[in-house]
Amino acid sequence: MQLVEVTAGYGRIPVLDGVNLELQAGDIYALLGPNGGGKSTTLKVCSRQIGISTGELRVSGQSMEGINPEILSKVGICTIPEGKGIFPNLSVQENLVVMTHTGAELDEIETATFDRFPQLATRRKQLAGTLSGGEQQMLAMSRALGTNPKILLLDELSMGLAPKIVKDLYEIVHQISEEGIGVLVVEQFARTVLGVSNKAGIMINGKIVREGDPNELEEELSAAYLGRREKDRSEQ
Ligand SMILES: Nc1ncnc2c1ncn2[C@@H]1O[C@H](COP(=O)(O)OP(=O)(O)OP(=O)(O)O)[C@@H](O)[C@H]1O
Ligand SMILES: [Mg+2]
Hints:
Blueprint: E1 2-10, E2 13-22, E3 28-32, H1 39-46, E4 54-59, E5 62-63, H2 69-75, E6 77-79, H3 92-98, H4 106-116, H5 118-121, H6 133-145, E7 151-155, H7 163-178, E8 182-186, H8 190-196, E9 199-204, E10 207-212, H9 214-220, H10 223-235
The chain binds adenosine-5'-triphosphate and magnesium ion.
Magnesium ion (MG) binds near residues 39 and 40.
């Protein structure tokens, strides 16, 4: 997947200002940066929740111009929407049943889910809304992966979760990438995601101002910026 010189925004308010980004099979690309920089907007462009003003989104070299968002999941781009995209009033199992609308068999979905997240297997009958935050994120990831995506878009996976759980979830993200899925991760909890990613970019005011090796970028990100974020989290 590629973004080429993309500009996009909301109504007449521009946000993205010439974004170039490339994600290959098996990549974990960490898109970092301060609040309001345009990270979530970038993911919305990739999942076609919002349109592009100029520039292009390409998947496997093909422009996605005019492609219906519903077709995107068939192209293989899958996102976990805000609110995690799970049904809180349905059980874990019922959430998985809903996924069969994509044509997959329930047996296959269950096997894939419970192999990846054994913790969910013991919670089959529990209402999704009463799962722990980390378990809800596991269910959300299972639902996203049920469509066999080539690309997974993750926005603030760590939101509201304890650092240990975030670390475990990113281990699973790493396993997912090893299956050949490209993952674009937006995150403020920078250190953990930099630890598993192979590419990183810093977005400020709608532009990727720096891109490169995650280790180098971690050093470059100002101690104040990273230090403050991690400290905030550990105090939560
Ligand atoms: N639906 C919307 N309508 C109008 N403006 C929006 C909308 N969503 C986001 N914006 C604006 O676009 C800019 C970029 O927002 P975006 O959500 O992409 O930032 P972000 O990098 O994800 O920030 P954060 O780290 O705080 O999540 C912000 O100024 C924001 O106020
Ligand atoms: Mg955001």
